[in-house]
Amino acid sequence: VNQVANLTLVSSACDMVSTAYASTKESHPYVRSVCDAAEKGVKSVTEATASCVQPVLTTLEPHVAAASEYASKGLDKLGETLPLLQKPVDQIISNTKELVSSRVADAKDAVSS
Predict the structure, then answer these.
(1) Are 85 and 9 in contact (CB under 8 A)?
(2) What confidence tens digit (pLDDT) does each residue in 64-100 have?
(3) How far is C-alpha 111 from the chain's CA centre?
């Protein structure tokens, strides 16, 4: 999970969502009250669940470690194959807009001639 969270694409997307969430809460008092209630609910459920889940996690720890190692190797390969994962969202959006604009301009030129 940490390795995925540290991918530039994922971390920049999380930052964008977090900023939008905070801005929305700040701008809209009714949304803020709903979000605050939801956050408290999630926190309570998380705290209540943590003590119940801990014995299961302890039992499964060797299996989780093996799965984590396997997933880590897969993510390394994926990162090599898809360099896009190392770019921030805003750069990907900008590059995509430029590519689409260029293709549309090429299509217009082709139709004109």
Answers:
(1) yes
(2) 889 999 999 998 898 889 888 889 999 999 999 999 9
(3) 40
